[in-house]
Amino acid sequence: MLFHPGVLMIPQILPLPCAISDIFAHATVSGQITVADRYGLMAAIISDSLSDEDRQAIDRLLHAARRGRVQVVDELSAVSQP
Fold first, then answer.
1. What CA–CA distance (Å, rounded) separates 37 from 49?
2. What pTM was estimated for this model as a whole?
């Protein structure tokens, strides 16, 4: 990427393949959405290239969070640290 003075370069945000299904599976098992999960969901929504299945999974996660079945936690990752 070349730098041009006075030109704002906005990086393209691309979600990882299968990221939504991984986040959905993790949240279903753990009952939590982490900071990393939230950024993954945000990247997917911003990319505006979601499949209907991914969009439905995000809607279900948001509904579960509103109902209290999934907690939004301030942990960076669900991976435990030694």
1. 18
2. 0.69
